[in-house]
Amino acid sequence: MVEGRKADGSAGDVDYAEIGGTYSRYRQPDPVIAEHIHRALGDATTVLNVGAGAGSYEPTDRDVTAVEPSASMRAQRPSHLARAIDAVAEDLPFPDNSFDASMASVTVHQWPDLEAGLAEMRRVTRGPVVLLVCDPALMMDYWLSDYIPEVRENEARRFPPIARIEAALGGRVTIEPVPVPLDCRDGFNEAYYGRPEAFLNEDARLACSSWSLVPKSAIERFEAALSADLADGTWDAKYGHLRTQPFFDGPLRLIVAMPDQAKPA
Questions:
Q1: pTM, 2 dp
Q2: Which of 1, 17, 86, 142 has the fewest CB atoms found within 10 Å of its own CB?
């Protein structure tokens, strides 16, 4: 069993009881991203969602079992979704080969033991293991790095390298980029690539956990610099083309792992 869980059960490096209160308002599932995930799940009828949070990207046309250690996040799940089980990725309370497919959406960077968590997902899953992740090697290639590199550096440190995930999953692994749409409803940092004003909203920022890990002085510096550059046109002079760019090809990746051999139902 994983030790070091926070008071509300959060198992990673942030306490969602402190920062997750408005998470469900700003982290809505985006339909473009959802299509990538749901396609990768194939024809699975039973799906396990690990680190399920408030339920983003859970398909509603399948039998979904959700696992989420944070009580704060479990409480924000909408009523039409199944109640989430209090458990962590590294210790899934299910028999071998329990599910047709499993998924984990932008959560593996929170797991204290990545390899153990992925091994557990593989153990309980007959078919595809589907992960939505960010590639840390691409994290700094984004205008936000010019204003608050501390946030992007934190994310680059927290997200495991793609090669490490691939090695831990084993089997047949495919990796594909997931372009972020301009009107993205899921408020991770890249979602606001063409809407910089959103970063001046503290609640929107805190819906992306990396902001809670940087000093207050850095955030104050960021707010002052971005506010000034938006007011005098400096941001638009450099990055204004992003306001109408339909998609942003950033670090978001979809990893799909199939077992080497078919597992029994």
A1: 0.88
A2: 1
User: φ, ψ for residue 220 (rounded to 5)?
Assistant: -65, -40
Of 10 and 62, more confident: 62
Q: What does the DSSP assignment read for the chain?
A: ------TT---SSS-HHHH-TTHHHHBPPPHHHHHHHHHHTTT-SEEEEET-TT-TT--SSSEEEEE---HHHHHTS-TTSPPPB---GGG--S-TT-BSEEEEES-GGG-S-HHHHHHHHHHHBSS-EEEEEE-GGGTTSSTHHHH-HHHHHHHHHHSPPHHHHHHHH-SEEEEEE-PEETT-SB-SGGGGTT-GGGGG-HHHHHTSGGGGGS-HHHHHHHHHHHHHHHHHTHHHHHHGGGGS-SEE--SEEEEEEE-SSPPP-
Residue-level pLDDT at 264: 67
DSSP state letters, 105-147: ES-GGG-S-HHHHHHHHHHHBSS-EEEEEE-GGGTTSSTHHHH
Closest to 177 in 3D by CA, of 162, 189, 195, 188: 162
Distance CA 40, CA 256 (A): 7
Cα(66)–Cα(221) distance, integer angstroms: 39
**Which residue do the tokens 């959802």 mark?**
34
Rounded distance, CA 55 to CA 186, Å? 12
Residue 43 phi/psi, 5-degree rounding, is -95, 20
